[in-house]
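Anyone? Bumping this.
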Amino acid sequence: MEDKVNLAAKLASFDGHFSPKVVGELNDYKIAVVKAKGEFVWHSHPDTDDFFLVVAGRLTIQLRDRDVELGPGELFVVPRGVEHCPKADEEAHVLLIEPLGTPNTGDAGGDLTASEERI
Amino acid sequence: MEDKVNLAAKLASFDGHFSPKVVGELNDYKIAVVKAKGEFVWHSHPDTDDFFLVVAGRLTIQLRDRDVELGPGELFVVPRGVEHCPKADEEAHVLLIEPLGTPNTGDAGGDLTASEERI
């Protein structure tokens, strides 16, 4: 059986931005952590909602009609099909939950598409 | 569209222990917060894993063969079918994620079974 996951320790174990690392699974969902800095890419997920919980720092989830500003202990679920683009002026640490196989870049694809690396 | 969720604010808005409150949804999963104090009831969920993330305080997830001790920023996923019994000597605040319709008491039932109240 898996052991517990300390989010800060996992986040301290890698570098790189917008490259999520899988730290656990919940049924057929992946539990991942990511470091965000700068602006990601506009995308949507046609088949799934997208869960963001800020662990440290501040993350802005840009939507087409507004910005959602998240600090530590704040979460937001982007509904399926809704375009969004995360950005962070300073490095932010974020917990992500979405179905296994969901690409981080959604329908946008491109160079920022990450594998589902497990740490 | 739902707004963001501030976990501390949600947790400050109710009293009572081992009575989860739903604060959001992720596809067909519920995102809930709970205040734990004392010992819950031994149970398992035959059809789903069970996600625990400690927001504040300390939570012990007793398994039949060991205890998993969680502090703030630590998560554990109890695999489906595995008996567990959460306990907390002092009040702990916890984020839970599991499929909508999953009873908090799993296969045990009884007086501690909570409705899926949304706050």
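Late reply, but here is one note on the structure posted above: Helices of chain B lie at 7-11.
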